[in-house]
Structure formats: structure tokens, C-alpha cells
Amino acid sequence: MHMTDRGLLALVRHEGLVPGPYLDVKQVWTFGIGHTASAGPPDPATMPHGMPADLDAGIREAFRVFRADLAAYEAAVLRTVKVPLAPHEFDALVSFHYNTGGIARAALTRHINAGNRVAAADAFLNWRRPASIIPRREAERDLFRHGRYPRGTIPVWSVDRAGRVDFSRPIRRLTEDQALALLRPSPLPRPPAFEPAPDAPTGWLARLAAFFSTLIRRA
Length: 219
Description:
Elements: H1 5-15, E1 18-23, E2 29-32, H2 55-80, H3 87-100, H4 107-113, H5 117-123, H6 134-146, E3 154-156, E4 158-159, E5 165-166, E6 172-174, H7 176-183, H8 204-218
Antiparallel strand pairs: 1-2, 3-6, 4-5
Helix pairs in contact: 1-3, 2-3, 3-6, 4-5, 5-6
């Protein structure tokens, strides 16, 4: 089971997209869409600081790292939750776990496994520190309970070489279609189709040419 497209976009909106290394609220070097060294390479602290020279390439790299990170969080939710989940419930739980890392010890997981989805939805708000995270918890709760996905463009924020993000104005806003095109892995290039040379005989012409060639050699 994997997150739906709408779930992916909701998670990107919650995390924010910064195409260069930045310091988060806990002063941890972070890159792209909430990626830190604890999730594996690359280590944001060792990446070139500041904005990338090619913004499109920087955004694509942020999405690539995000997709690589996400697989572990999806697997952890599937491993911990013992009952079947609707797609929107799974999306909400992966978003929660991506932010908190707490799916295995959260009360909401115990409530889900016990079959009490009402109590599970309410328990999202147990994880409400710092206070600035409360709107996200409420959105995850509403997604889990009602399948209500956020909509709108996805902002891309700039960052300076000291790791400070400028949240005053996004440098780009991605539509949902643009974001999904970047989120999906690029298709592998198709091998070129074999085309015979313009003067190369094919099919029955080839057999006819071979027949006359044999007659000429025998003459």
C-alpha cells in the first residue's frame, strides 16, 4: 500500500519545500521536504548551502529524496497497524509518522488496532507540541476521519547560505499537476526502434532478392 497522489501533496504542503539545506525549528540541518541525515543520505549539513543554481534541478532533487524517504514511513505504518485501512486513513497516518516518528507508540495506533476509529481520530491531537503544529494535527485528524484533503498550490521557499528560510514570499508556486509530475519518477528512455536502411529489402522482397542472387551466381 502506498500514499495516494492527494496524500502525497498534502504531506508536501505540511512539510514545505525548500530546495536547499536549511535549519529547522530545532536547528537541525534539513533539506527539501523534511529530510534529515537520520533518514539516510544525503546529509544536508554537507550539501552545498544556499539556493541551487538550477532551481528546477533543486526541486527535482528534493522530490527524489522525499520519495526515497517516504518508503520507510509507509512500511512502518503497514507494519504497526494490524487492521485494514482506507486510503485516506493510510495517508493521514503516514503524514503523522513522517512528522513525529511516533506511529509505534502513539495511542491513536492502539485505538485503530482495537477498532475504535473515533478515539483514534481524537488522539491525533495528543501530539500538539509545539503549538504551531496544531493546525497540521487537526488537518491529519480530519483527513483520517472524513477523507478531507487540503487543496491549493504548493509554495517553494528560498534559503540563504546560513540556512535561514525566507517565508515572507515563495519564489515559486507549484500547481498540483506540476508537483505530481515532479514527484513521479522520470520514465526510463525508450530504446530506439530498429529501422532498416531505406534501401534494405524487407519481407518478400528480401526473399526475392536472395532468389535472383542465387540464380546469378549459378549462371
